[in-house]
Amino acid sequence: MARMLPEPTPETRHFWEGCKDGELRLQRCTECTHSYFPPRPFCPKCGSRDVEVYAASGKGFLYSYVINHRPRPDMGTEPHSIAVVELDEGPRLMTNIVGCPQTPEALQLDMKVQVKFEKQTDDISLPLFEPAKG
Amino acid sequence: MKPKSVAVVGAAETTKMGKIPDVSVLGLHADAALNAMKDAGLKPSDIDGVATAGVSPVELAQYLGITPTYADGTSVGGCSFMLHVRHAAAAINAGLAKTILITHGESGRSRVGAGGFGRNATSLMGQFEMPYGVTSPPTMFTIPVLRYMKTYGVTEEDLATVSVIQREWAALNPRASFKDPITVDDVLNSPMIAWPFRMLMCCLVTDGGGALIITSADRAKDFPNKPVYVLGTGESVETPMVSQMEDFNSSKAFRVSGKKAFEEAGIKHADVDHLMIYDAFAHLPLYGLEDLGFVKPGEAKDFVRERNTAIGGKLPMNTNGGGLSYMHSGMYGMYALMESVRQMRGTAAAQVDGAKISVCQGVGGMFAAAGTVIFGNEA
Question: Is residue B2 within 8 angstroms of chain A, CB to CB?
Fold first, then answer.
């Protein structure tokens, strides 16, 4: 059983194209400067349609998470994190933390993390996060 | 709405509860509806309004032989029934219908006549949450809690204490699924589901249903049972994606819905004798106590540990044993409403002596929606 993968829509395609190109693309409002996620062609804060896509830093911190222990063959055989990262630009997103033990000791809230794109298919790469280096 | 303008005149759960492999989802709706009509001394032809979630109100009306002038299919998860009560109150006050039936039935455990779980990979959840392993309540509802625990110094023992106290209530309820006492250690030694949640911090998965009948307060005295008046109601929705909650320490939908209900009812927190807070997981009563304003942010863990919500405490909460020990079919809100109504009628298994006001707080989805109903038993 394969991991469930996203099917992009016209409003989200830029995000998934960005992941494929190794870039975490957010949107911001050109009127009120609010950065937001998930993608949509208008600002959720002020309603303006004047928004732009930009490349985010890919840096943030671990905001909250769980470590799933229930069987999930599509996610591998070991317990795995399901995490929310708060990006330096403000928005939060769901992800997995990789590149470290999947334990409460290794996964400390507020630790710095950085994006790591993991290719799933020719069309889809997922933005996962790993502990920040240095 | 105007307080005490409508009342519950019929209320009943399904004949059986827990494991019901011989009844379908639609059958559970009908069983609960027939029991509620019997409770109110009514026939299907006396009902002119229907509301339900899970199945369509069209399906329900046709199956029961009802010709409604009002139908509400609001479906926002487990608190849908709180919203149905609120909408029914507005509808009766506006003259859209006189006698409204609200039903719930779910074959959560046996899955008889139950639909599959949909996975839409084009939805925002399908694109931005499910690919990371988020698919079921234990990996969704639980996501905010580590942040909440860090912010307020809440421990695993605090979460476990919620489960322990609810089991004490369940022991008084012959219909509860789990009645044997448990300790904090039992909870902390139960199997890990999704860190920091252990099995005994998660709700049951059972079969059952319930139904309510609501009419105007001026007709309510003509029914066989003591009327239970609706004093105030609230509702709100926030986000289908738990990762996009505005604040992981608090539910905005809870705050908005609760505030509205208290304002409508014109009551203070000190007036409340009995409280139900939908407990799909052990952290929900803690969020609920704070977001409804019974305690300040961060104080719920101490409030519960000091046994204020336990038997003999000043604010008895989840007196049926809750979703953690009584039953949880999937959309638990109806059972919370049932217990509030029983407490107001004076017929609960763990009756709170002299209770006059009950607050019933529901949640829908994973902090996606909320509904609040405040009941009273004095006209």
Answer: no
Residue B123 lies in a domain: no
Read off the pLDDT of residues A96-132 as tens digits, 9 standing for 90 and up: 999 999 999 999 999 999 999 999 999 999 999 999 9
Separation of alpha carbons A64 and A40, rounded Å: 24
- For A91, nearest residue in chain B (alpha carbons): B244
**Which ipTM score applies to this complex?**
0.92
Chain A residue with Cα closest to B242:
A94
Predicted confidence (pLDDT) per residue in A76-87, tens digit? 889 999 999 999
Distance, in Å, from the CA atom of B186 to the CA atom of B201, rounded to the nearest integer, reads 11
How many domains are contained in chain B? Answer: 1
Q: CB distance B195–A69 less than 8 Å?
A: yes
| Token duo for residue B227 | 């009327």
Q: Is residue B297 part of a domain?
A: yes
- From chain B, the residues in CB contact with A12 under 8 A are 127
Name the 3-class secondary structure at B241. coil
Q: What Cα–Cα distance (Å) separates residue A98 from each residue in A84, A134, B97, B243?
A: 13, 16, 56, 18
Report if residue B254 sits inside a domain.
yes
Domain extent for B20: 6-113+204-376
